[in-house]
Amino acid sequence: MGKPVVAVIGRPNVGKSTLFNVIAGDSISIVKDTPGVTRDRIYADCNWLDMNFTLIDTGGIEPESTDIILSQMRQQAQIAIDNADVIIFMTDVRQGLVDADLKVADMLRRSGKTVVLAVNKVDSIQKFGNDVYEFYNMGIGDPMPISAASRLGIGDLLDAVCSHFDKASASQDIQDDRPKIAIIGKPNVGKSSIINKLIGTSRVIVSDIAGTTRDAIDTVIVHNKKEYVFIDTAGIRRKSKIKEELERYSIIRAVTAVERADVSILVIDALEGVSEQDAKIAGIAHDRGKGVIVAVNKWDLVTKDNKTMNEHLSNLKRILSFIPYAEYIFISAVSGQRLYKLFDLIDMVVANHALRIQTGVLNEIISEAVVLQQPPSDKGKRLKIFYSTQAAVKPPTFVVFVNNKELMHFSYVRYLENKIREAFGFRGVPIRFIIRERQ
Ligand code: GDP
Ligand code: GDP
User: For the EngA-type G domain, which residue ranges apply (predicted)?
Assistant: First the structure.
């Protein structure tokens, strides 16, 4: 199952950015440039001891006046509740415990989410240690003194965070073979409409899986007697008036939903085409090795002749050229056109994601490929491919043993990938290669 998700929340200036940078180091994956705002992190893939997790920053543009601080904090907390396994609630020992902290603590307590309470700016235990006790009043567990700026107490904090992962992943790891699908895309492309149409018009059964974790907001849709789990669809319905907040939310949602999915359906508005944000979101699915279906929605609004679909297709493929394996489908959530074909595509992509090729057959294909096109050489030395094997599924990962890694050119890997795809398809899923040397 997917990596655990950790969210940091707290009032402005308590030190969230500082902590984020200390934990994430250089591994920050998506930053957003908004004019007039500093480069803004959204999430980072992090690691503590042997634990991998995704850290998300629910913040964004932070308000200055106190009356909107609380509503902003509530919004951040809700995003964290919807998306995270563990929430780090950060407070500031120098500002002390304030009313907004207590209110948000109430909200977190009611959600039943796992919360780790960090009290920041405890730069000296002698000086500030006693002030930390006050934060017990929040009623969300033991306050942990830290100093993000001086990197004090960070190890203990991360130990506490990671100690909750087992529980979270255990509850998700119950044997579950149902396809898991993340519907992703920027706001207003029609994600909720697609789900609602799938729920509403046919013989589908909707049920919310009971549970205390994020599973609670998954939707199960039955099609041809088979169950499909659509992840985190409740989150889609979250609306905000601020464009930047909406964008941030759709990226956070994409990261956390894709993490748990087998296949992602990237929804694009047919009239608008692919935007930069669409490409970023597609990149999330690609980086995480998930299957990708691009659903071009609102197809009912396009004036068409017999060439229109192919024109759209080649345009989309050109812009999304970093996911050449993606499957495309043109749909309308309003008319329902081709909506049920989605299930066939999902079945195919899910099967390909888990497809395992026998070593013998694989090596035959690679040998034929090598005969058809000689491997690259450099300074009189030619690449030799000894042996290949599929080391993993989800995504399919191939290990290729060669005489000299330096000689394996990117374009030759691409050539081998194409040959493997010609032979076995793998439509809709990324393929990974690991090149190993053997003398
Ligand atoms: P955010 O608004 O919650 O993201 O807070 P920042 O990370 O931007 O920090 C706000 C201010 O607090 C900055 O001036 C930081 O340098 C300062 N700060 C952060 N952590 C500490 C700390 O551990 N001790 C002290 N004394 N200052 C800190
Ligand atoms: P989301 O933010 O991605 O979940 O988008 P919504 O499902 O809320 O849809 C945004 C708007 O687009 C709504 O006004 C929908 O009625 C409209 N919409 C969604 N799908 C279609 C479609 O296939 N055709 C048309 N004409 N409108 C659509």
Answer: 4-169, 179-354
Q: Is 306 annotated as a binding residue?
A: no
| Ligand closest to the CA atom of residue 62 | 1
Torsion angle of C-alpha atoms 319, 323, 325, 329, degrees rounded to 10: -50
Q: How far apart are CA 291 and CA 285, in angstroms?
A: 7
Alpha carbons 352 and 44: distance in angstroms, whole number: 28
Ligand 2 in contact with 301 (CB < 6 A)? Answer: yes
Amino acid at 356: R
CB 429 within 8 Å of CB 393: no
> Can you tell me the distance from the alpha carbon of 47 to that of 89, in angstroms, rounded to the nearest whole number?
19
What is the average per-residue pLDDT within 316-334?
A: 95
Task: Kindly give the distance from the C-alpha atom of residue 189 to the centroid of ligand 2, in angstroms, as a whole number.
Answer: 6
What integer pLDDT is reported at residue 203 of this predicted model? 41
- How far, in Å, is the centroid of ligand 1 from the Cα of 194? 43
Q: What is the pTM of this model?
A: 0.74
* Residue 301 near residue 274 (C-beta atoms within 8 A): no
ipTM: 0.73
Return d(Cα 233, Cα 255) in angstroms, integer: 13
DSSP 295-341: EEE-GGGS---TTHHHHHHHHHHHHTTT-TT-EEEE--TTT-TTTTH
Ligand 2, atom 11, residue with closest C-alpha = 188
Structural contact between residues 86 and 14, judged by C-beta atoms closer than 8 angstroms: no
Task: Determine the Cα–Cα distance for residues 406 and 375; give it in Å rounded to an integer.
Answer: 12
Tell how far the Cα of 301 is from the centroid of ligand 1, in angstroms.
49
- pLDDT above 70 coverage of the chain, percent: 84
Q: Which CATH architecture has domain 5-168?
A: 3-Layer(aba) Sandwich (3.40)
- For the cut 80, the answer to whether the pLDDT of residue 11 exceeds it is yes
- The domains of the chain are located at 5-168, 180-354, 359-437
The CATH number of the domain covering residues in 359-437? 3.30.300.20
For strands 114-120 and 327-330, give the pairing.
Answer: unpaired
Query: What is the fold of 180-354?
Result: Rossmann fold (3.40.50)
Strand partners, 266: 184, 294
Atom in ligand 1 nearest the alpha carbon of residue 123: 24
Q: With a 6 A CB cut-off, is 233 part of the ligand 2 pocket?
A: no
d(CA 366, CA 372): 10
Indicate if ligand 1 lies below 6 Å from the C-beta of 76: no
